[in-house]
């Protein structure tokens, strides 16, 4: 009887052990060489950031992924990049008009999505950041986001056994510095490429559009594509899209970067890819849904005085046109990207 | 006897061949130049915190921090040939080691001028994350409007209207019209000898940050931390450097 009991216990233990080792090697989180190959969607132009000085390897990508999901980058280990950049929202922040960081402090801008970053010439709503690699310094050091210094991040990682090993695997030596932290983060975020939405499949002739979607596409081409142009759905410019300045936030936008009066209240034309998932909208997140966005563009009498003249192309939209436009915008949702296992939180395993 | 002759001949041939070979040439290393930056406030050596100085407007102030980037060094010979270094150095007043820089692998000869920039050129402002002197962790970097801070001069002055009567000049910017990179060109006979280190000293006069061409009134302008007014200070610091004449050591 006793022997039987021991056998059962042993059997259970070994089952757990085997299962455990299986989970550890979970292929869902495994990053292979093929996983980190840079695959440019057919219709896309040449990327601006090309990884020539930052050669992608699975090991470096895995390190970047761990850093992205790790609150160790913040002063009190409360906030990670992923706190505000959620995978399911194309790495924007669902249902948060303004981002919030350490100690519950509220920022003054809406989180931008992270996708197709290697085609961006500048980052942030005001384009103040000139290279993908140095972008993360902003949220890390901003007192209302992660409030940590790069020096401290380096010290914390050096004292962390797991990171010491990961850096060693990635670089073959023991050096940990800000350059490597930022470069591996750039590998992780740079590979976030979305170019496989229903729209893309429609263009390739692989999928059909409904009548509403087709009409929406036509409307989009004549009314919106002037700024949201090309396969990236942005011309990378800064414009006043008719929003009146929020008097509480007093955000000058591009003007704060260039120091030119005409640039005040101009913001980056954002991509529209995965727009369905990146609500709320606009640089200050003032619109909860796409209906409000379309209503704004359709109501010129409410525009800020210095609005961009290309908005005149839109004119007043009928309710049906608004619905069609939104139907089209939803075809830009790229489920393959939103559920891409390579970008999943590795702590889930 | 004949055997010895052949041995001597072959050794001699080898020796002559070697002396022409580029392999041997590379074994003789070029010279080095050690530049020591010495901070001054006018005619006195700069002392952080403890000393009180006066600017052109007779306003008293003390200095708590003085840092700057220098780089893109070049040495020119009379015939126009030039030695160029691509390195950058961050000179920090509170770090003696940082004030001695070494330019390596300089071809032998007599040079007549030393040129460099105060700042960081646009390429290095746009190249993403870097290490060493250009590591953003050094605190001389603006994250929100990407770019290096070329020079920091901080201190206190009773006339300053900033909180705590501090003044702070954080000067940077590589894009026109707010370009604050300044080219420094100093005439100086510098002799470089192979396998030796030539030492020279450069005076960095912090007083110049606040004068010529524009006298800074600390009661009106005590904080420059972005493009606003930055070029005024940059024009001031462009004449901050001069060689300290002392017998050159080799």
Offer a few descriptive terms.
A: 349 residues; mainly alpha; two-stranded antiparallel ribbon; B: mainly beta; ten-stranded mixed β-sheet; 15 strands
Q: Number of folding domains of chain B? A: 1
CATH class of the largest domain in chain A: Mainly Alpha
The stretches of 5 or more residues of chain A where confidence is low (pLDDT under 50) are: none
Main-sheet strand order of chain A equals 1-2
Written account of the structure:
The complex is a heterodimer of chains A (349) and B (250). Chain A has 349 residues and is an all-alpha fold. Chain A has two domains: 46-194, Cytochrome c-like domain (Cytochrome Bc1 Complex, Chain D, domain 2), CATH 1.10.760.10; 198-333, Orthogonal Bundle (Cytochrome Bc1 Complex, Chain D, domain 2), CATH 1.10.760.10. Helices cover 36% and strands 1% of the residues of chain A. In chain A, α11 (290-298) packs across α12 (319-329). Chain B has one domain (28-243). Chain B is built from four helices and 15 strands. Chain B has helices at 2-20, 22-25, 122-126, 230-237; strands at 31-41, 44-45, 53-54, 60-77, 82-84, 88-92, 100-106, 109-118, 141-142, 147-156, 166-172, 182-192, 197-205, 223-224, 241-243. In chain B, the strands form two sheets. In chain B, strands 3, 4, 5, 6, 8, 9, 10, 11, 12 and 14 form a ten-stranded mixed sheet that branches. In chain B, strands 1, 2, 7, 13 and 15 form a five-stranded mixed sheet that branches. In chain B, a hairpin with a 4-residue loop joins β4 and β5 (82-84). The mean pLDDT of chain B is 93. Classes of the chains: A mainly alpha (349), B mainly beta (250). The A-B interface holds A 53-54, 124, 128-134, 137-138, 141-142, 149-151, 154, 177-179, 181-183, 186, 256-257, 259 and B 125-131, 135-137, 139, 141, 143-147, 178, 226-228.
């Amino acid at each position: 009887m006793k022997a039987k009991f021991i056998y059962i216990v042993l059997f259970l233990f070994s089952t757990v052990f085997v299962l455990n080792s299986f989970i550890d090697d979970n292929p869902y989180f495994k990053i292979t060489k093929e996983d980190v190959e840079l695959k440019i969607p057919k219709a896309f132009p040449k990327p601006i950031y090309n990884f020539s000085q930052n050669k992608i390897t699975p090991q470096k990508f895995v390190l970047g992924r761990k850093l992205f999901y790790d609150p160790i980058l913040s002063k009190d280990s409360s906030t990670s990049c992923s706190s505000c950049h959620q995978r399911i929202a194309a790495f924007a922040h669902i249902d948060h008009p303004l981002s919030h960081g350490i100690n519950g402090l509220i920022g003054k801008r809406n989180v931008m999505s992270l996708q197709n970053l290697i085609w961006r010439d500048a980052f942030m709503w005001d384009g103040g950041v000139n290279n993908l690699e140095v972008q993360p310094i902003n949220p890390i050091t901003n007192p209302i986001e992660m409030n940590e210094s790069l020096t401290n991040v380096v010290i914390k990682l050096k004292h962390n056994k797991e990171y010491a090993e990961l850096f060693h695997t990635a670089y073959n030596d023991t050096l940990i510095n800000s350059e490597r932290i930022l470069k591996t983060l750039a590998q992780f975020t740079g590979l976030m490429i979305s170019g496989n939405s229903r729209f893309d499949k429609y263009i390739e002739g692989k999928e059909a559009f409904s009548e509403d979607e087709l009409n929406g596409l036509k409307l989009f081409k004549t009314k919106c594509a002037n700024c949201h142009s090309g396969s990236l759905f942005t011309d990378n410019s800064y414009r006043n899209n008719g929003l009146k300045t929020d008097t509480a936030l007093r955000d000058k936008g591009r003007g704060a970067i260039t120091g030119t009066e005409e640039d005040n209240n101009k913001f980056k034309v954002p991509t529209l890819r995965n727009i369905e998932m990146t609500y709320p909208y606009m640089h200050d997140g003032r619109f909860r849904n796409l209906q409000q966005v379309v209503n704004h563009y359709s109501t010129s009498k409410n525009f800020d005085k210095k609005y961009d003249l290309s908005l005149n192309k839109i004119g007043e939209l009928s309710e049906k046109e608004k619905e069609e436009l939104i139907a089209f915008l939803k075809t830009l949702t790229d489920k393959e990207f939103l559920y891409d296992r390579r970008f999943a939180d590795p702590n889930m395993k | 006897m004949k055997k010895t002759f052949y041995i001597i001949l072959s050794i001699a041939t080898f020796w002559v061949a070697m002396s022409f070979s580029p392999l041997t040439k590379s074994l003789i290393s070029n010279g080095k130049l050690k530049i020591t930056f010495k901070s001054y406030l006018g005619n006195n050596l700069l002392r952080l915190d403890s000393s009180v100085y006066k600017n052109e407007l007779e306003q008293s102030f003390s200095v708590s921090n003085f840092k700057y980037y220098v780089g893109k060094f070049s040495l020119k010979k009379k015939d126009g040939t030039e030695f160029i270094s691509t390195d950058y150095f961050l000179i920090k007043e509170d770090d003696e080691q940082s004030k001695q820089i070494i330019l390596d692998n300089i071809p032998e000869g007599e040079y007549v001028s030393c040129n460099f920039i105060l700042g960081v050129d646009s390429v290095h402002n746009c190249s993403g994350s870097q290490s060493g002197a250009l590591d953003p962790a050094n605190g001389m970097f603006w994250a929100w409007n990407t770019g290096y801070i070329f020079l920091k001069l901080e201190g206190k002055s009773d006339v300053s209207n900033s909180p705590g009567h501090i003044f702070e000049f954080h000067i940077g910017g590589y894009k026109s019209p707010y370009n604050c990179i300044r080219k420094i060109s100093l005439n100086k006979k510098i002799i470089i000898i192979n396998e030796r280190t030539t030492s020279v000293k450069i005076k960095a006069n912090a007083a110049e940050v606040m004068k010529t061409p524009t006298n800074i009134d600390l009661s009106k302008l005590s904080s420059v931390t972005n493009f606003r007014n930055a070029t005024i200070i940059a024009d001031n610091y462009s004449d901050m450097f001069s060689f300290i004449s002392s017998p050159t050591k080799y």
